[in-house]
């Protein structure tokens, strides 16, 4: 078995564009779920809004790339307001129901036949990332990191640079925000919103702010998703994306700044490690009772088993505080 | 002692204000801080609250009592904006408060605690306290990003919080999670946290529920202290000993309506109150069989009680010792 190949593929995935996309999506969820206790099950919709804003602005209407970025940010704010106004005054579970439905509505709209001229139907949209790659600071060629252990081409390097800079920027902003009295109000709302109301805080407004901020970060994840693939396809924004983002968040530890970052890197490292490992083992006849076509399913079984064990033995995630979990048992 | 004389004068002032008031529901007070008119709340066919008129005297400790299901907590929820009333209006310091959302009610200086204590478990004790402070600059997202804008205010808030924690004997728990406190300590924390907003009217929903006798004494002291500092206290309670001990005036609710008001030492002998607690016809004549049956029940109860008297006597003596 080629362990070098297995590890280099896994490391590439751990710092690659998937990790960045899921990291940003999970950071958004961390603001909403981790800190404020809002169950947003429609994060995929915010990514779709981000991705399709750039794609439609550039590919369909031929307008500038940065206008698309601006439209994406504005639309994600509007989507958050649209979801929040009717549901945030109600119990937490209503938001979960409405967001999961909204995410599907967004996906079905962008893949609809009636709007094929605008959104491209099930094929989605391509040819919109030129302006982004025109800004690339890396000259064309292959780049190897860690002495050739892992490597990316110049486009990949540009995505990684922009992506991780955005992750760092968002994380630093949230680090300051969550240490401030503003962040304290969010955490208090997660614990008991009536108590916070009784202390004179406008709970509705804070919940809305959390929903909007998390949604905007989700749209940024959508930008990276679309640009890294130079393509926006509707079925990539299914509810599965949201649940993987939750997995990343819980793996790393909710309500921790580093949680989603380490969670995303580790999640994608393990996903590709298991997949490449199985494929190698089958190709080299180490495992003979499986074939390569079954790897996809087995991969999810193994990752799922790992997550179950994590929740049993370390429910707070990697960065969580065990004392906090113990409080719930009282 | 100095504190004692102040204590006595505030209590005397409060009692003097109630001097000569009729024990009628809705009797006007000399200086009401809270005035309630025709508040109605229905849940389907059930009228949970139907209060025609009620005034709460400024600077007093007023108890709100009544049998289970009398609508006391629902009434509290109406007044503090946690539930919307079907009809009626009320004013606090002359300002209309009906239809005002809960957080604005609290900002106006009318804060409440809850029957089921709401300590914010995963926040530390001192963070719980800081949250209670009003008009914090750092509670705006953008201002929060620039610590220079709110650090000064935060340290003022923290020293205020530490002062209150010292007074409520929670300072040793300053950096513990609020979730790790005992039930009684959570009650203390909730009360202390409410005081961070410098309220004028403190509304306590069953402050003594689930608190052990030793802590009850300290809680009672704190409630008396609130009046001492010029605050008005309105509280719901079941424990009549406590009501007699600390309240200056008692309001009795039954089936959603205020049925009587009066000073604590006479209110429990008011026939309307006895009727509300024991049923209107508890002393009406019975038929021969009913009388016979009641006699048997009473006898059975007496023998059961005789068996337990020893134990009860002991425990009462112990709690008496703690108070001394």
TrEMBL record, chain A:
GO terms assigned for molecular function: branched-chain amino acid transmembrane transporter activity
Presence of keyword Cell membrane: yes
Primary location class: membrane
CDD domains according to UniProt: TM_PBP1_LivM_like
Keywords, sorted A to Z: Cell membrane, Membrane, Transmembrane, Transmembrane helix
GO cellular component: plasma membrane
Transmembrane feature ranges: 6-31, 38-59, 65-85, 92-110, 130-150, 157-178, 208-227, 248-274, 294-313
Subcellular localization, as worded in the UniProt entry: Cell membrane
Secretion signal span: none
Membrane topology: Multi-pass membrane protein
Tagged with keyword Amino-acid biosynthesis: no
PANTHER family per the UniProt record, alphabetical: HIGH-AFFINITY BRANCHED-CHAIN AMINO ACID TRANSPORT PROTEIN BRAE, HIGH-AFFINITY BRANCHED-CHAIN AMINO ACID TRANSPORT SYSTEM PERMEASE
Protein name listed in UniProt: Branched-chain amino acid transport system permease protein
Automatic annotation (TrEMBL), chain B:
Domain of life: Bacteria
Domain ABC transporter per the UniProt entry, residue ranges: 34-280
Gene Ontology CC terms: plasma membrane
Keywords: ATP-binding, Nucleotide-binding, Transport
Compositionally biased spans, kind Basic and acidic residues: 314-324
Record region (Disordered): 287-324
GO molecular function terms listed in the Swiss-Prot or TrEMBL record: ATP binding; ATP hydrolysis activity
UniProt protein name: Branched-chain amino acid transport system ATP-binding protein
């Amino acid at each position: 078995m080629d362990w070098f190949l297995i590890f280099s593929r896994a490391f590439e995935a751990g710092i690659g564009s998937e990790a960045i996309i899921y990291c940003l999506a999970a950071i958004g969820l961390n603001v909403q779920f981790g800190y404020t206790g809002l169950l947003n099950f429609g994060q995929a919709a915010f990514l779709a809004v981000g991705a399709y804003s750039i794609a439609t602005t550039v590919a369909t209407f031929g307008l500038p790339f940065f206008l698309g970025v601006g439209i994406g940010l504005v639309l994600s704010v509007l989507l958050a307001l649209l979801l929040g106004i009717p549901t945030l005054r109600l119990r937490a579970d209503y938001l979960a129901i409405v967001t999961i439905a909204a995410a599907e509505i967004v996906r079905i709209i962008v893949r609809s036949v009636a709007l094929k001229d605008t959104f491209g139907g099930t094929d989605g949209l391509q040819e919109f990332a030129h302006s982004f790659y025109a800004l690339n600071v890396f000259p064309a060629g292959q780049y190897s990191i860690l002495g050739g252990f892992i490597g990316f081409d110049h486009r990949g390097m540009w995505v990684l640079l922009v992506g991780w800079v955005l992750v760092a920027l968002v994380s630093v902003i949230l680090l300051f925000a969550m240490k401030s009295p503003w962040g304290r109000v969010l955490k208090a709302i997660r614990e008991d919103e009536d108590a916070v109301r009784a202390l004179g805080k406008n709970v509705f407004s804070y919940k809305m702010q959390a929903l909007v901020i998390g949604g905007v970060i989700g749209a940024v994840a959508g930008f990276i998703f679309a640009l890294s693939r130079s393509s926006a396809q509707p079925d990539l924004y299914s509810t599965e994306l949201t649940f993987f983002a939750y997995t990343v968040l819980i793996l790393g530890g909710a309500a921790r700044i580093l949680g989603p970052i380490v969670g995303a890197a580790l999640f994608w490292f393990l996903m590709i490690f298991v997949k490449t490992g199985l494929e190698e083992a089958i190709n080299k006849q180490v495992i003979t009772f499986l074939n390569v076509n079954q790897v996809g399913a087995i991969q999810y079984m193994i990752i799922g088993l790992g997550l179950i064990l994590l929740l049993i033995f370390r429910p707070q995630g990697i960065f969580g505080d065990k004392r906090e979990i113990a409080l719930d048992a009282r | 002692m100095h504190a004692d004389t102040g204590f006595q004068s505030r209590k005397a002032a409060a009692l003097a204000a109630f001097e000569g008031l009729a024990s009628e529901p809705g009797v006007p007070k000399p200086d009401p801080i809270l005035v309630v008119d025709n508040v109605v709340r229905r849940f389907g066919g059930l009228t949970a609250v139907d209060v025609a008129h009620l005034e709460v005297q400024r600077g007093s400790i007023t108890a709100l009592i009544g049998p289970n299901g009398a609508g006391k907590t629902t009434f509290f929820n109406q007044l503090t904006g946690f539930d919307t009333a079907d009809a009626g209006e009320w004013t606090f310091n002359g300002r209309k408060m009906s239809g005002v959302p809960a957080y604005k009610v609290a900002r106006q200086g009318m804060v409440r605690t809850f029957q089921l204590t709401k300590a914010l478990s995963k926040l530390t004790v001192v963070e719980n306290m800081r949250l209670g402070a009003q008009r914090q600059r750092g509670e705006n997202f953008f201002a929060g990003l620039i610590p220079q804008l709110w650090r000064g205010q935060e340290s003022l808030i923290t020293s205020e919080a530490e002062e209150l924690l010292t007074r409520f004997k929670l300072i040793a728990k300053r950096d513990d999670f609020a979730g790790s406190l005992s039930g009684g300590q959570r009650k203390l924390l909730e009360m202390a946290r409410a005081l961070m907003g410098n309220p004028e009217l403190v509304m306590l929903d069953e402050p003594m529920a689930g608190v052990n006798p030793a802590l009850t004494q300290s809680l009672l002291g704190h409630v008396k202290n609130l009046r001492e500092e010029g605050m008005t206290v309105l509280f719901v309670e079941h424990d009549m000993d406590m009501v007699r001990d600390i309240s200056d005036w008692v309001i009795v609710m039954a089936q959603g309506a205020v049925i009587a008001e009066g000073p604590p030492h006479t209110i429990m002998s008011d026939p309307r109150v006895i009727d509300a607690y024991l049923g209107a016809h508890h002393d009406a004549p019975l038929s021969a069989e009913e009388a016979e049956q009641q006699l048997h029940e009473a006898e059975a109860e007496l023998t059961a009680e005789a068996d337990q008297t020893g134990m009860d006597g002991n425990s009462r003596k112990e709690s008496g010792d703690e108070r001394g």
